[in-house]
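Journal club prep — side note

Before the paper discussion, L.F. wants everyone to see what a predicted structure for a comparable chain looks like in token form. Sequence:
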Amino acid sequence: MIIKDEDKKVSGMFHFVSHDAVSLEEFIKNIPRKGNFKFKQESPIVHIVCKSPEDAEKMLKKSQETGWKRSAIISFGNNIVAELIGTEKLDFPLIKNGKLLVSEEFLKIILEKANKNLEKGWKKIEKLTKSV
């Protein structure tokens, strides 16, 4: 994502968002020319509704076995919800007062890393799905 560099959510803060791999050319084409923005890649997050506390515990064990580093039960109300969060995250200032703060070479490296992180996240979800 390319998002406005704000302390809290504001209207129109998302400038560019993709859930797919992004080429350097596509990314550069979407860099804003005014304002303050940051690059942000969020970790995958999965929420699973479980029938019982025992099922939730089994889900947490499966999540750990399939590479999810952060997992917890986040609700015990009518629905028992397990939350799985990956660790594939990137976040840094990109644009300050309309000026690009990093080189094209750095962008190329970071996009390769971000695309690998995205692939790792999808593989982790696939591995969990097969495990369940």
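L.F.'s comment for the group: Strands lie at 2-4, 14-16, 37-41, 45-50, 70-76, 80-85, 90-96, 99-100. Keep this in mind when we get to the figures.
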